[in-house]
Design a protein that fits this description.
The protein has about 60 residues and is mainly alpha-helical. Helix content is about 60%, strand content about 0%. The chain is built from one helix and no strands. The longest helix is centred in the last third of the chain and has 36 residues. The termini are far apart.
Amino acid sequence: MNDDDDRPKRKITHDIGQDLYLLSINELEERIALLNDEIARLKAAIASKQSTRGAADSFFKK
């Protein structure tokens, strides 16, 4: 039985500009995935806001 499975997983975080020297390749890849997910979330928020704004603009132009 592996005791590592019982421990809570450490939450991956990344601070922009932090020192990367001590991070492993795996940790760097995890952070890239985290940041790619955040970029996708931000792009979705922009698209949603643009859609809402477009609808409001077309409503008030009438």
